[in-house]
Amino acid sequence: MDYLNQFHGNFKSAMQWSHLDDLWHVLREEPSDWYVYAIGETVPTSPLKADLFMCFLDEMQQLLRTEHGESYCGIVYTDNLVSPQMIKVYDPNNLGVSCGYSENPPLPGWVISRTAPVNLSVLQKPPKNRQRWWRKLFTHHNH
User: Fold this and answer.
1) Quick one: which H or E segment has residue 88?
2) CA of 20: how far to CAs of 40, 57, 81, 87, in Å?
3) 43 contact partners, CB below 8 Å, separation of at least 6
4) Which residues pair with 76 in a beta bridge?
5) Where are the alpha helices (DSSP H) in the chain?
6) 78 contacts 55 by C-beta, under 8 angstroms
7) Is the dihedral of CA 22, 36, 105, 127 positive or negative?
8) Are 94 and 130 in contact (CB under 8 A)?
9) Cα(45)–Cα(25) distance, rounded to whole angstroms?
10) Helix, strand, or coil here: 12?
11) Dist. CA 26–CA 81, nearest whole Å
């Protein structure tokens, strides 16, 4: 299946924080061959190295828990909670209408996938604060 068809497919929410913990656990079991695409940044042409992927999961977990001040998660969606191939992570500070029906639903902040991504940022621009967060995260870990 190509990236856009997969992106527009059916997704299930990691509604509770425990669901997100379970999903992260599945990803940590096989940390290789995951593309991490921060919408608005350069589209990755290769999967993240396993150590950087684990770092990304740690940082994303912290960001979501800190900035999404709800008793539930509900902003991470996956095509399959047990054997995911694509995960959409919505930015807690740029949610718009991420659930329900919307004529112009927001793009997720990040897409984690086994399939090489294509440019989605032409549809919308992410907030500048997230671009800074993303660049700082990988600048720090590449030194």
Assistant:
1) strand 86-89
2) 24, 11, 9, 11
3) 37, 117, 118, 119
4) 89
5) 3-7, 17-29, 50-67, 128-141
6) no
7) positive
8) yes
9) 25
10) strand
11) 9
Higher-pLDDT residue of 143 and 110 is 110
pLDDT tens digits for range 40-72: 889 999 999 999 999 999 999 999 999 888 888
Give the Å distances, CA to CA, from 50 to 1, 19, 62, 117, 118. 24, 22, 19, 18, 21
Summarize the confidence of residues 67-93 as an average pLDDT.
91
Q: How many CB atoms lie within 10 A of CB 43?
A: 15
In single-letter form, the type of residue at position 1 comes to M
Radius of gyration of the chain (CA): 14
Query: Taking the model in full, what pTM does it have?
Result: 0.80
Cβ atoms within 10 Å of 1's Cβ, excluding its own: 11
Token digits for 119? 């440019």
End-to-end CA distance of the chain: 36
Sign of CA dihedral 92, 123, 49, 30: positive
**Identity at 52, one-letter amino acid code:** L
CA 53/CA 47 separation, integer angstroms: 9
